[in-house]
Ca(2+)/H(+) antiporter (Bellilinea caldifistulae), 1089 residues
Amino acid sequence: MNSLISYFRKHPLHILLLAIPLSVVSEIFHWRPIWIFVFSAIAVIPLASLIGESTEALAAYTGPKIGGLLNATLGNAAELIITIIAIRQGLLDLVKASITGSIIGNLLLVMGLSMLLGGLKNGIQSFDRQQSSNHAVMLVVVIVALIIPSFFSHSIGAEGSWGVELLSLGVAGVMIALYVVGLIYTLKVARSPIAVAGVELESEANRRWKPSRAISILALSTLGVVIMSEFLIGSVEEVVVSLGVSEFFLGVILIPLIGNIAEHLVSVTMAVRNNMDLSLEIAVSSSLQIALFVAPILVFISLLIGNPLTLIFNRFELLALGGGVVIAAMVAFDGESNWLEGAALLGVYIILGIGFFLLPTGG
Amino acid sequence: MNSLISYFRKHPLHILLLAIPLSVVSEIFHWRPIWIFVFSAIAVIPLASLIGESTEALAAYTGPKIGGLLNATLGNAAELIITIIAIRQGLLDLVKASITGSIIGNLLLVMGLSMLLGGLKNGIQSFDRQQSSNHAVMLVVVIVALIIPSFFSHSIGAEGSWGVELLSLGVAGVMIALYVVGLIYTLKVARSPIAVAGVELESEANRRWKPSRAISILALSTLGVVIMSEFLIGSVEEVVVSLGVSEFFLGVILIPLIGNIAEHLVSVTMAVRNNMDLSLEIAVSSSLQIALFVAPILVFISLLIGNPLTLIFNRFELLALGGGVVIAAMVAFDGESNWLEGAALLGVYIILGIGFFLLPTGG
Amino acid sequence: MNSLISYFRKHPLHILLLAIPLSVVSEIFHWRPIWIFVFSAIAVIPLASLIGESTEALAAYTGPKIGGLLNATLGNAAELIITIIAIRQGLLDLVKASITGSIIGNLLLVMGLSMLLGGLKNGIQSFDRQQSSNHAVMLVVVIVALIIPSFFSHSIGAEGSWGVELLSLGVAGVMIALYVVGLIYTLKVARSPIAVAGVELESEANRRWKPSRAISILALSTLGVVIMSEFLIGSVEEVVVSLGVSEFFLGVILIPLIGNIAEHLVSVTMAVRNNMDLSLEIAVSSSLQIALFVAPILVFISLLIGNPLTLIFNRFELLALGGGVVIAAMVAFDGESNWLEGAALLGVYIILGIGFFLLPTGG
């Protein structure tokens, strides 16, 4: 018992693992869907964190280059699982909203919190302007590429027509090619924002995990995410109806938080420790991986599943993506941050949140 | 008589005070509305300037911190009065256009004139890139926040529905919170673009005004702006019809100029004196105060008046705001200006002016 | 025969002159339009290059200032000729698409190729951040000015109404005024991105051309472009129908390439030789000349021809222009480039190309 307490003291997030049995019980005994939703959502948080920790542990054995690749692919495992299950359920709007939400969550919420808390602790914080500018350029280019098809789709045909499907596949192909090129660049030439080497807080470091143990934990926590995501997604539609919130709000604000809280915490912690370079790099890198890897992979997988997902976003998502990337680029080019800027970024995130909250489902 | 001439030589703007009696006469004898409009518009210019001068004089006694607060709140008094009277008359389109116009007037017209005249006088002008970048970041973040609701409103409900009203109130609340946070930041931490310490040209300095005299002049000139604004707004609708110009053109181009010419002159004069840092700071700071203070205050006051104003702009205003802020941010990040850039900014302002001039009322 | 081979070895582009007789033959004997289109398109490439070379040769005699003016006006001769002939044929959509295409061709295709090939050869390439920022500011301001009328047009009246025509003429007037002001700035004050001094690759240098010979070659190649453009434009409509590609695709992707390949090659070659400053300057300068000189000149000439062209772009063109300029500005402000960024720019160009390819004519 004592050892359990000291374990949870070291790994406070893992206390949320207790939500797993509650989620299973609520599912079996058909509790009200809102409880299933809440318990399974909470349970995903520590499981996603465990996937990350076991990936780090494996990366520590494979060396930094392969480790970077492992991080770049497995780092988004939880998010991929949730969205694939949502695609199977036909919740395509939710999936697209959560792609948007993951990107603006990184660029507005995490960057804003990092700059606010980091600035309150450390005053004005500087970071390497050249490196952050490089990252910002990639970010802007990739987000522009991501939103182009949405402008063309309306004129090319209805959602689901072969023209729009072809456009989405073409863009997904270009994106994934750019992702591979980016990995090659990172491996052969220099660091790039596409694959960041693993970052560990000492409190989460599990270097003592042997590879076999790391692989077991990775497999178990992945299985856990799959089951919890089934429960979560299975209850979404009833939650939308009973709470009166829109599918967009769940997709843009809640779903992305669930899968990424652990990573977000690392980014904010780095800012508080005055390592603003690393904090920004994590946020930008996460956004790029969503756009260049997760989104196109989902397009291809959705085809196999038979519920084709297109990269056609609605105009609220376009506004959120466009506004988020412009703000993040400005911040990165500035080379300095303070808590007032952080508060302003959070203000934009809150205003977007109010908008998505008031938006009716199907809006 | 001689002393009057030497007074007007020192304070050339004050000669426009002669328009006050003309405005009163034209109102009493029911001259054609265009004359009432012209005289009262001209009369507002020196009165707005006197509000500014008496605020400066008070600020000189209160010290820089309280003085900065005085400036930040009273500096927009003339504009607030005109727009509140317009709200009472139900001219909500005019009010929203004048919010837009104040922002692009600062970012395109004043910045453009400053860079053009400053550049012609001083050649290429440099300014502190770090400080102007900081300002630009705040500017971009705030303008993005300001335009978000406009994109959501159409899907949330008709203008005037509770959803849109709630969205506007929510945004106004976030804005005013950010404004208060910005004032705290300026008072406690470091200079920020939200509240600039008072700037005086020697020719306008009235440090000899005692506080009692400053308060009297402040009260009288405020009263004068109230009366002149009543005449001005009372004649607007007939002017729109008889001249054939749109309400948008008056709101975007003319109304903002009337209330801000004195401040604009200070900014341009600073550029000609090769103090480009201060010139830019005034223009950016004015824009931020309109977005973070004037606009939300108008939303709240309009509710009390019973003519609720929403922060939902039309797409021309969105284009003007978006284009203006992107250009201003680029200029600020550049760290250098020349008269060609100034001419280009004025070109964009003229093109926007042509567009608003040709736009039919209700367009 | 040997001298001819050694000539073509020195001037590989000129081998394409052989397409001229093929184009004439295909026109006379009424071959299928696709052949007329292909041969005349190929023939324009070396002719446009010869116009450039003879302009350079003349510029070498007139000195750098007049030479800069010659380059700024004659540098776009081929493009002007093609688009004027297209206007006479009433292909206004094609003309507007090719204005867009010339700008994004420079900002995405040429910059992307330059950064990709230059980066593969030279690693990370730096360039003068101050100069490229200055250029980027002008670019952003000018492109914002160019896209403003498109937002107003819908509300001002139908395409072809006097209001929209007036708006286009007003904007064209402001643009051309800004162009003249830019030339004055370049002549009197300092280098600016509006008129770049001529750039020659040694392999293309023809300094031995006497002025009389240069003028003869200029006249002959201009005449050649006129004839080839007649053939080219004459076959466009049938090619659109028979190939099933949209007029937009031809206008945005193909037509701009034909008239500018020689200049594009210079820009890419400069990047490979690690002169990134010059490479970027050529690309930005070309884009500015299209917006400030070619587009407004076409508006005025189209009025004389009686087929009035407006500066009202559709939303795909607006997206391409907006996205292209934001990306180019980011790159310019960055001060560094690498081949990953180059690949990303090409990715955006390809995605835009897919979009325009799938767009139905009239879309």
Q: What stands out?
A: Residues 2-358 of chain B form a domain with the A middle domain of Talin 1 fold (CATH 1.20.1420.30). The beta strands of chain B are 125-126, 336-337. Chain B has 13 helices and two strands. Chain B touches chain C through 33 residues (CB under 8 Å).
